[in-house]
Amino acid sequence: MSSTGTDGPVVRDRPVAQAVNVTKRFGSTVALSAVNLVVRPGEVHALVGRNGAGKSTLVSILTGLHAPDDGHVTFDDEAAPAAADRDGWRRRVACVYQKSTIIPTLTVAENLFLNRHTRGYGGLIRWPALRREAEKLLAAWSLDIDVRQPAAMLSVEQRQFVEIARALSVGARFIILDEPTAQLDAAGINRLFGRIDDLRAQGVTFLFISHHLQEIYEICDQVTVLRDARHVLTAAVADVDRPTLVAAMTGEDVTLPQVAHRPSLAGAPVRLSVRDLATTSGAELSLEVKVGEVVGIAGGGSSGKVDVAEAIVGLARPARGTVVLDGRTLRPGSVPDALAAGVGLVPQDRHREGLVPALSVAENVTMTVPHRVGRYGFISPARRDALARQTIADLAVKTSGPQESVGDLSGGNQQKVVMGRALAGDPKLLVLIAPTAGVDVRSKQTLLDVVADVRRRGATVLVISDELDDLRVCDRVVVMFAGRVTGEWAHGWTDNELVAAMEGVGFDHV
Ligand SMILES: Nc1ncnc2c1ncn2[C@@H]1O[C@H](COP(=O)(O)OP(=O)(O)OP(=O)(O)O)[C@@H](O)[C@H]1O
Questions:
Q1: What is the position in ligand 1's atom list of the atom closest to the CA of 50?
Q2: pLDDT tens for residues 362-380?
Q3: Looking at the predicted complex, does its ipTM rise above 0.90?
Q4: Keywords, A to Z (predicted)?
Q5: Per CATH, is 10-102+154-250 categorized as 3.40.50.300?
Q6: Which of 412, 464, 463 shows the shortest CA–CA distance to 211?
C-alpha cells in the first residue's frame, strides 16, 4: 500500500512491524534462522507453519520477551525499544495468548488499568474515575462489557477483547493473536472476526496465528509461512490456494488422505455405560458405547460436552449417575480409579491436567503407567526411554529426544506428548477432549489416524470436540446443546447439518 501526496514526495506506508534476518537458538535447537517478516499497516497478516516451525519464538521476539541472537526488530521503521524497556514494547505491540494474562479476582476495569490507576490526593485510587475511564475505553472500541464485573466472569471471548482493549489503551496499534479461535465456538469465532474487521477499520494491525487454514482465507490479507525455522513464503492470501499453502508448510506436495472409516461391529458388547449422568453444572448424559466403537460428543462452548466428559473420566465429580466400564463402576471424581480401570485421557487443558513441563518427554509419557516401565517400584530408564521413543516416532513429535523437557517443546508437540501418555497404558477407553487443538494440519492427520488404530485394537473411543475433522472419524456423533443431548448423527452427516445441530437447530432429529 502506498499513497502519493500532491505537493510532496511519495509517502510509503512504513511497516508497522518488521523482523529482519532474525535468528534464535535454544541450546542446539535453531528455532529461527534468518527469518524476515514485514507487517504493513491495517492488514491482518497470518503467520502459519507446522508445530515447532518457530511461530511462538518469532512472537516472543516481536514482543521483546526474547532477544534475537542475530538480526533485529523495527516498529514503524524505528529500532525496537531496549529489552528492559517493557513499557516501550507495550506501547508498540501486544500479544493475546491462549493462556490468559487477565487477573480473575480483579474487575474488568482494574484489569484494564492494571498498575496505571487514576490516583487522587494522597495517592488513593479513584474508583469512580477508573470505572468511567474503563467504560470510555471500551465504548471507544465498541466493546460491550460490564467493567464492574470480576474478570473471572468473562467468557474466553470477552477476556480476549479486554486484553485487546488494554493493549490499545497503552497505545499499541499492532496486536498479535496467538491461536485466538482455539477455545471459541463457531458463534464466538464469528464475533471475534467481526471485531477484528471493525478494529482494522479503525487502524489496528493484526498478526494472526492459526492452524485452521479456512480462517486464514476468511480473515487475513497476507500470509507468511515458516518451515523448520525458516521463512519460506509471504504472499497475498488471495494469491495462494490451499494446496500451495499446505505444501509451503510441509515442504511436500500433499493431498491429505481422508480418514478411513470402518463401521462398528454389529454384535459387539457394550464397553462403556453412562447412566443418568448429571454434572454439577446441570449437563446430562446417558450413553452406551460398544467395544471398538468411536463416538463423538459435539456441541458449542456452553453445551456441557466437556463437563460430561470430565465427569466420565473422574476429572469432576458428577451430581449423580454412574459410569460403568466393562462391568466395573468407576469411582466418581477419581482419575486414578478411571486410569486403573483402563481409561486413557487427553484433557482439554494440557497446562493444568496434561503435562508437567519441567519433566522430560519420557517422564511425561510414562507417568501414568509405571507398571509398564518398571517393577517393584523401580523404574527402568531404558524401558521408559524405549516407550517414549516409540511415541516420538508414532506421533512425529518434534524433539531432540526423550530427555528434553516438555516445557521446551512447541505447543502442538506438547499436545502430541499428551496423546502419547493417553495411549501408553493401552487403554480400553480413550477419551479425547479437543484432541487436535493447536495441532498443525499434518499432525492432525497423524493424531486422527491414532483413533483408527486403537479402534482396530479393540479400544472404545470418545471424541469430545466441535471440530468437524475430529468428528468425522466417529461412527456416530451425539450432539449436545445447553446441557442436553439434542440429536444423534450417524457417520455420513454433512457439515451443515452438524454445525446447525451444534448451534441448537433441529432438536427433533433424534
Ligand atoms: N525455551 C525453549 N527451550 C528450548 N527449545 C525451545 C524453547 N522454545 C522453543 N523451543 C524450540 O524451538 C522450536 C520452535 O518452537 P516454537 O514454539 O516457536 O514453534 P511453533 O511454530 O510456535 O509451534 P506450535 O505450532 O506447536 O506452537 C521447537 O523445536 C521448540 O522445541
A1: 25
A2: 988 887 766 665 555 666 7
A3: yes
A4: ATP-binding, Nucleotide-binding, Repeat, Transport
A5: yes
A6: 412
